[in-house]
Amino acid sequence: MRKVFVAGVHMTRFAKMPEETVRTMAEAVVAGALADAGVGPDQVGATYFGNAISGVITGQEMVRGQSALRNTGVLGGPVFNVENACSSSSSAFNLAWQTVASGQADVVLVVGAEKMTEPSGLRAMQALESAVDLEEVDVLKSRLGERADGDRSFFMDLYAGTARGYLERTGATAADFAQVSVKNHLHSSLNPHAQFRKTTTVEEVLASRTIVDPLTLLMCSAIGDGAAAVVLCAEDRLQTDRDRIEVLASVVTSGYARQETAFEDSAVVRAAARAYDLAGVGPEDLQLVELHDAAAPAELVLYEELGLCPRGDGAKLLASGATTLGGRLPVNTSGGLLGKGHPVGATGCAQITEIAEQMWGRAGDRQVPDVRLALAENGGGYIGSDSAAAVVTILSR
């Protein structure tokens, strides 16, 4: 296996953009990432296209990548379409990394693109609800108890159940969840690509509309559109003289589909442990983390699953200021899913883009000094009582 490097990145802004399509956004990020890497489309040996819900939103169920990329110059070579719920483009990144590492191609393009907004406002919810085993959906809904059918995705009920369990287990409060949103909106206010550019307060988060107790509107990621792209290449194909960003590890796991998942068996815990082992580092070595805060409580849970703090101490880590810009381990400097936005198929590539921008010193007002080791965690779907997919990537400069 040979070394693999991030050669270029690019992303659109994340927002509700009715004028954009998956194709227009994909074209923009492909052109931007290739230019950033200093390579042409004719040099791309393979392309991996991450998209989660176009089959429902636009009806483009098959050949999504070929359709979106037909005007970019990369067709002719292999195009692989990757769907893995919210972790679609991070899963695509994993496959692209394997392709370069194994010597099958020297330059590989990864694209994540998602169009979630549409006139009815209902299709995105329907699409997201397909990220579970539909043969088990009635059982899942019965476990959740009463819910207001039609006014929200039952993923919010899943997140709320996790939140209530976390409150009972740790003694944290809803104000701690609110503080996650405050932190990430502070970070997104400094990110020109972010969907939400305004700061907020704990009081405003708690006072926003209740989605399902204890989650309020500002504790939940929103519907949006966007795309991001990453170019990976072998060491001898790097075209720029800037610092090299090596992919030390990329690990994908799935949940075991058990009704009760032990902490140490969770998809994220297992992915993180394997990634740390492959990279030869530990959580104490990290200087930056981008993680999957689809709802605010998830960030505190993930602090613990990633080994950033002892189990039960997620709220304490947040309160210490360590994960805020200026702290010892900033988390979600992009604004995360809560602030930057979450066009689901694009999120994985956007996380890698944020880390690369930080490592290359291009993050502007949210720049973290001298980032040399960083981790991205991206989850997708739900199986049993766990994520259906979890992807952990470790990058080094």
TrEMBL record:
The keyword Transferase applies. One of its GO terms (molecular function) is 3-oxoacyl-[acyl-carrier-protein] synthase activity. The keyword Repressor does not apply. GO terms for biological process: fatty acid biosynthetic process. Pfam families: Thiolase_C_1, Thiolase_N. Residues 4-236 form the Thiolase N-terminal domain. InterPro entries: Ketoacyl_synth_AS, Thiolase, Thiolase-like, Thiolase_C_2, Thiolase_N. Gene3D superfamilies: 3.40.47.10. Residues 255-388 form the Thiolase C-terminal domain. Keywords: Transferase. CDD domains: SCP-x_thiolase. This is Acetyl-CoA acetyltransferase. It comes from Nocardioides soli. The lineage of its organism: Bacteria, Bacillati, Actinomycetota, Actinomycetes, Propionibacteriales.
